[in-house]
Design goal:
Elements: H1 15-24, E1 49-53, H2 54-60, H3 65-69, E2 108-112, E3 115-116, E4 136-142, H4 147-150, E5 157-163, E6 169-179, E7 186-197, E8 202-213, E9 229-232, E10 245-248, E11 251-253, E12 261-262, E13 270-276, E14 281-286, E15 289-293, E16 296-300, H5 302-305, E17 318-333, E18 336-354, E19 358-365, H6 373-382, E20 386-391, E21 399-420, E22 423-443, H7 448-455, E23 457-459, E24 473-475, H8 499-505, E25 511-532, E26 535-553, E27 572-588, E28 591-602, E29 606-620, E30 623-634, H9 638-642, E31 647-654, E32 657-665, E33 674-685, E34 693-709, H10 713-721, H11 726-729, E35 732-737, E36 740-749, E37 752-771, H12 772-775, E38 782-798, E39 805-806, E40 816-826, E41 829-838, E42 841-842, E43 848-849, E44 863-864, E45 868-869, E46 872-885, E47 888-897, E48 909-910, E49 932-940
């Protein structure tokens, strides 16, 4: 492998470029690339493959491998520990899973040395943290459909992590980094050993890794304190020329305060402040409302209403990762090699999600023992028996998750060579057994029934049947059930919540244990069939059997009745049987055709066929054209098929009013596989007049039908109440009075094959390597430039209900994403500068931007005052110094991510749920931590 791989598309460049690179770097190793079962080098691959080598990963010094891979422009919208914080009840908090083309992590196939790996969640997500980073030799990204080669899930493409299986030596590496704000500290230590015995026949490889990241439990950054949101415009009325939606600063909640706010009736605006030590009751104030509509307001006391609510989600989850990997191979003969691998990875992490919030749905009776006297007197005078309050529950801790996962993977197999009709053939057989054992546990999730009893606190009357002294503050229920253990809680004011009350309303932390088991057996043959004038016709064929299974355990008391969690155990399994064949035909000199087909039988959904046809054509030495069409599939995963119905709490916005609900999401065993048709066409140019330069362009188009999807709760509400889709109204279980919705108990969700999706765009990649002494004699060192650019033209989803939506250029999928790097190497020093950027975009492509004289707003095209998201670019710099002391080689490295400490662009999150204010006021595709400085030391023994 070259010390520095000079371009993602260098693996497909023309032979002239290979020669040029070989001149500049004398030890360039042939690379067998992902995307085909036929042994070849990447220069002839019809499907675009981006290749990132060890040196480039090392230059970025990522805290984990996923952090680096996510900077590749073709990968966008991936799941990270930070972005998965809200997935408490789903159990996926803390996952690092990749998302090619923003088509979803379920449509990205992750491989290790071309083999599948067991998922870490029931959704099929492979946690990249389970891959031994210290042994990764390169990462290959196939940005085209590859189901014919690898089976299900490769709709968006494949990310294949290739390990250095021939490493010899002993090396140890330690790293430490933190932000310039003094938080987010991360540590990592890695030890790698490899050696050959018995004349190279026996090889042993081992790797151990320990990594720790300190949690940033909230969002302590100035850019997050500006109250920047997307709300319903309080000044809008049909026909008045105002936009329906408003984006701006100084926006905050209008129906909550930290200690409670009366939200309706004659006492509306009364809020409860800090507890007065003299009275033991809350002080009382009157809220200064700004321009208010429903749950939100512009101006007024917006900072106070959200003071313990804004940014309560973890900016950076904490985690501890430990990994062990071992591999042994033995050459029985020149034609047979046996191998075995074993790995164990453990993750334990903690992340905070949201300050628990009640939006105008807490009822306080007039005899509540914690009511300030002045408020009680007002209620008496006004004849009020109850108050409705909203609160962000100061004193009740922020909820979150503490998840633990252990992933075991065992592989055994053999590979070898043989002659068939006097031609050399290869074979490869392996069996794999993998298991992920998870414990998904929540904290800060109150028991709903206990809280309802605890907040109904009264003074014990004289002579009560329970024998409680008169005037004692007790739960009303205790007067009739003295042994129920209820502890009263003060929900009025700041500073009144006792530890005893917390212990009662949060008596335990709900948890679920699961086992995800994957078993695989595969056999492949490949080799030349016969010769043509332009070369040998190559073939590959084989079969694969796979079984996926989930089982779980939940204590019955955690099945229902909790704020978050409400876990149910999942049970289910399916089997897959597959056979495939692939041909590569050199039609004439410079023209190659490649075709593959795969037959697959699923025990749950029957038979499917996938195929691909592609080719390359090099009319001259300097340029090679390539193209590929394919039929790909994605089969439903364990969660989509067998989810038992885990519930979670949140809120939806209906007619500018917030409604709390419990979401009940279940699986659907009748799902069919998704079907995708993909098309790519492009070229690779390596002009001889510019030695060392390679550029590639590839256009792609992906169409998915029968896409598996699940509506979000807000979608269900909008389809019912805005578009009168009665099938969705049936999924909302609520209480109505005279046909008017009063409350929602449950919103039911289930995946089904209902959507079509079309995405198209193009990739541009270029690399140029220059020896400076070729420019001017005696100039030392080498310069390497590399650029990776992806343009997303459209990404339209049509669910068949509602209206089609286009995600390209909006919020989490900018139209343009690029990564540019320059490296100067003059041993023992190496300097690397990287620019990572995205183009400007829109909040939503369906919005119509206007400030005055707006056209009529519609459900399909709402009007908004500001639909823009600014462009952003972040710079990284690394300097490395190689040294030798006492015969031991070492490498000292200093890296700075986000050199100029650039803040992320603010993105006005849509305020449709009660969790919006807890999130960072941007999106996770941008750097949010600020400047990160890291140092590392590696020593080879």
């Amino acid at each position: 492998m070259a010390a520095l791989l000079i371009g993602a598309q260098a693996a497909q460049a023309a032979d002239a470029a290979e020669d040029a690179v070989a001149t500049a770097e004398s030890e360039v190793e042939e690379i067998t690339v992902t995307g085909s079962r036929i042994v070849r080098d990447g220069y002839n691959a019809p499907t675009p493959v981006s290749v990132v080598g060890t040196a480039e990963i090392k230059a970025q010094a990522p805290a984990n491998l996923a952090d680096f891979v996510n900077t590749i422009p073709a990968i966008v919208g991936s799941t990270t520990p930070a972005s998965s914080s809200p997935s408490l009840s789903a159990g996926s908090a803390g996952i690092n899973a990749l998302n090619l083309r923003a088509l979803g992590i379920t449509r990205t196939l992750v491989l290790i040395d071309g083999q599948r790996s067991v998922a870490s969640t029931t959704t099929g997500a492979v946690d990249i943290n389970t891959i031994p980073q210290g042994l990764v030799e390169r990462v290959e990204v196939v940005t085209g459909g590859a189901s014919a080669a690898y089976g299900s899930d490769a709709v968006g493409g494949v990310v294949n992590f290739i390990l250095n299986k021939k490493y010899e030596g002993l090396k140890a590496k330690i790293e430490y980094g933190e932000t310039t704000y003094g938080d987010g500290a991360n540590y990592k230590a890695t030890v790698t050993f490899g050696d050959a015995f018995m004349g190279g026949k026996l090889r042993v490889l081992a790797n151990a890794e320990y990594a720790r990241t300190e949690e940033i439990p909230d969002v302590p950054r100035d850019w997050n304190m500006k109250g920047y949101f997307n709300i319903q415009n309080p000044l809008y009325a049909p026909g008045n020329g105002q936009p329906e939606k408003f984006v701006g600063y100084g926006i905050g909640p209008a129906q909550v305060t930290p200690g409670g706010l009366v939200t309706s009736g004659p006492l509306r605006g009364t809020y409860f402040g800090r507890i007065d030590p003299a009275t033991g009751r809350a002080t009382v104030g009157q809220l200064a409302y700004g321009l208010a509509l429903g749950q939100w307001m512009i101006g007024g006391d917006w900072q106070y209403t959200g003071s313990n609510y804004f940014g309560s989600e973890s900016l950076l989850p904490g985690e501890i990762r430990t990994g062990l990997f071992g591999r042994t191979s033995y050459e029985v003969s020149d034609s047979i090699e046996l191998f075995a691998e074993a790995s164990w990875n453990r993750y334990s992490g903690s992340n905070h999600y949201i300050q628990p919030t009640n939006i105008a749905n807490v009822t306080i009776r007039s005899d509540n023992a914690y009511l300030p006297t002045s408020v009680r007197n007002q209620m008496t005078a006004l004849g009020l028996t109850t108050l409705q309050i909203g609160t962000t529950n100061f004193g009740i801790p922020v909820g979150g998750a503490r998840n633990r996962r252990e992933v075991y993977r065992y592989v055994a197999g053999a590979k070898g060579k043989f002659e068939l009709m006097e031609k050399p053939w290869n074979w490869d057989f392996y069996v794999q057994r993998g298991q992920a054992r998870t414990r998904e546990q929540l904290f800060g999730s109150w028991n709903n029934a206990n809280l309802a009893l605890a907040q109904d606190a009264v003074f014990a009357p004289a002579g009560n049947a329970a024998g409680i002294p008169a005037g004692t503050i007790v739960c009303r229920s205790t007067l009739t059930a003295p042994t129920n253990g209820c502890v009263p809680i003060n929900r009025l004011g700041i500073g009144g919540v006792t530890q005893a009350a917390l212990n009662y309303i949060i008596p335990a932390d709900p948890y679920r244990k699961q086992k995800l088991t994957q078993t695989v057996a595969a056999l492949t043959f490949s080799g030349p069939v016969f010769d043509l004038p332009a070369g040998a016709v190559q073939a590959a064929f084989g079969g694969e059997w796979r079984r996926e299974q989930v089982s779980g355990f939940v204590e019955p008391r955690f099945n229902s009745g909790w704020l978050y969690g409400n876990y149910l155990p999942n049970f289910g399994n399916y089997e897959v049987e597959e056979g495939f064949v692939e041909l590569d035909v050199p039609v004439i000199e410079g023209l190659n055709l490649n075709a593959a087909g795969r037959y697959t039988h699923y025990s749950t959904s029957g038979d499917v066929q996938t195929w691909k046809i592609g080719g390359t054509w090099a009319p001259i030495e300097d340029i090679k054209f390539r193209g590929n069409i394919s039929r790909d599939i994605r089969a439903p995963n364990l969660d989509e098929l067998f989810a038992a119905g885990t519930a979670r709490s949140n809120s939806v916005l209906i007619n500018n009013r917030s409604f709390a609900y419990v979401q009940n999401a279940t699986g659907n065993p009748n799902l069919d596989p998704e079907v995708a048709d993909s098309f790519t066409v492009g070229f690779v140019a390596s002009p001889r007049v510019i030695p060392g330069f390679t550029v590639a362009f590839d256009y792609y188009e992906i169409k998915i039908k029968d896409a598996i999807g699940q509506l979000q709760p807000q979608d269900v509400a909008d389809l019912c109440f805005l578009q009168n889709v009665q099938a969705q109204c049936a999924n909302i279980i609520g209480t109505y009075v005279n046909g008017v919705l009063q409350s929602i108990s449950t919103i039911k969700l289930q995946p089904f094959n209902f959507a079509k999706q079309k995405e198209r765009g193009f990739d541009i990649e270029g690399a140029y390597r220059l020896r400076l002494d070729d420019v001017m004699a005696d100039l030392p060192g080498d310069l390497t430039f590399r650029g990776m650019i992806t343009h997303y033209i459209e990404n339209v989803t049509d669910r068949g209900i509602g209206f089609p939506t286009d995600a390209a250029g909006a919020t989490v999928q900018p139209s343009w994403i690029y990564r540019l790097s320059a490296t100067y190497s003059n041993k023992p020093w190496t300097y690397n500068l990287v620019a990572r950027g995205v183009s400007s975009g829109k909040l939503d492509n369906s919005y119509i931007e206007c400030q005055t004289n707006c056209p009529a707003t519609t459900v399909q095209h709402p009007t908004i005052n500001d639909n823009s998201i600014p462009a952003a670019v972040f710079f990284d710099f690394t300097v490395g110094w190689e040294f030798e002391v006492g015969g031991k080689k070492g490498d000292l490295q200093l890296s700075i991510r986000n050199v100029f400490d650039k803040d992320p662009p603010l993105v006005a999150n849509l305020t449709s749920s009660n969790s919006t204010a807890a999130f960072p006021q941007t999106v996770r595709i941008y750097d949010q931590l600020g400047r990160i400085i890291k140092a590392s030391l590696e020593v080879q023994f």
